[in-house]
């Protein structure tokens, strides 16, 4: 029996890597349902993420993130875009590895900076030197994204359509390499 395209696909990577943008398009092209843990948390609380950080601290947000991840990772036939910090907790990394095929969208700090510098909905990037903060996050998290991922796709300087094509090619190669 040959392997199929993985049932669930999880996207991980830093803020601005393109998880939401790429995730929606990949889900559409593979006929899967798209969810984004950040969006689910905002819908359920009725407030934006910076407000959750203000009211509950980062710790409160991380608790919501883990329970949302746990719930949505176990759904059927989904593409799930995760928050940039979803790989921090070992528990979350275990959930991602257990329930789906994990794709790390990797971009360099300069590219991430250009994509996120004017955004007001990312609390970790407010009132700080955005480039220095992204450097620090990249340094701390790149090993965690790398160890959690089944596939790494570079997204800096690459149009979204090219990224989608690369992911589809990798998934189809996976499918055919497992055929008898
Ligand atoms: N390959 C790309 N080339 C150019 N711009 C891109 C690319 N991918 C995403 N972008 C742009 O970068 C910004 C951030 O993308 P997106 O919101 O998808 O990132 P994210 O990984 O979901 O970030 P977060 O973790 O903060 O939710 C958006 O304005 C998006 O249009
Ligand atoms: O990188 C992070 O830690 C975050 C990324 C966003 O997706 C949100 O989940 C939140 O702003 C925290
Ligand atoms: Mg996003």
UniProtKB/TrEMBL annotation:
UniProt xrefs under PANTHER family: SHIKIMATE KINASE, SHIKIMATE KINASE 1, CHLOROPLASTIC
EC number: 2.7.1.71
Residues binding ATP, per UniProt: 16-21, 122, 158
Main localization (coarse): cytoplasm
Cellular component annotations (GO), alphabetically ordered: cytosol
MF (Gene Ontology): ATP binding; magnesium ion binding; shikimate kinase activity
Binding site for Mg(2+): 20
Cofactor descriptive note: Binds 1 Mg(2+) ion per subunit.
Keyword Lipoprotein: no
Protein name, entry field: Shikimate kinase
Compartment(s): Cytoplasm
Pathway noted in the entry: Metabolic intermediate biosynthesis; chorismate biosynthesis; chorismate from D-erythrose 4-phosphate and phosphoenolpyruvate: step 5/7
Catalytic activity: shikimate + ATP = 3-phosphoshikimate + ADP + H(+)
Alphabetical keyword list: Amino-acid biosynthesis, Aromatic amino acid biosynthesis, ATP-binding, Cytoplasm, Kinase, Magnesium, Metal-binding, Nucleotide-binding, Transferase
SUPFAM superfamilies xref list: P-loop containing nucleoside triphosphate hydrolases
GO biological process: amino acid biosynthetic process; aromatic amino acid family biosynthetic process; chorismate biosynthetic process
Gene3D superfamilies, sorted: P-loop containing nucleotide triphosphate hydrolases (3.40.50.300)
Biological role: Catalyzes the specific phosphorylation of the 3-hydroxyl group of shikimic acid using ATP as a cosubstrate.
Residues binding substrate, per UniProt: 38, 62, 84, 141
Assembly and interaction partners: Monomer.
The protein's required cofactors: Mg(2+)
Family: Belongs to the shikimate kinase family.
PROSITE patterns: SHIKIMATE_KINASE
HAMAP family according to UniProt: Shikimate_kinase
TM segment ranges: none
């Amino acid at each position: 029996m040959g392997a199929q395209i993985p049932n669930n696909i999880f996207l991980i990577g830093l803020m601005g890597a393109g998880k939401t943008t790429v995730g929606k398009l990949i889900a559409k092209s593979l006929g899967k349902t798209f969810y984004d843990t950040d969006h689910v948390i905002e819908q359920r609380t009725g407030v934006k993420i910076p407000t959750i950080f203000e009211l509950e601290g980062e710790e409160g947000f991380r608790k919501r993130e883990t329970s949302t991840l746990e719930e949505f990772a176990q759904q059927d036939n989904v593409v799930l875009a995760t928050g940039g910090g979803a790989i921090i907790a070992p528990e979350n990394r275990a959930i991602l590895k257990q329930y789906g095929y994990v794709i790390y969208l990797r971009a360099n700090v300069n590219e991430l900076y250009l994509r996120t510098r004017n955004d007001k909905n990312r609390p970790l990037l407010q009132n700080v030197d955005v480039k220095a903060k992204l450097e620090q996050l990249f340094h701390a998290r790149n090993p965690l994204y790398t160890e959690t991922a089944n596939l790494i796709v570079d997204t800096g300087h690459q149009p979204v359509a090219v990224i989608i094509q690369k992911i589809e090619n990798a998934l189809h190669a996976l499918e055919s390499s497992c055929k008898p």
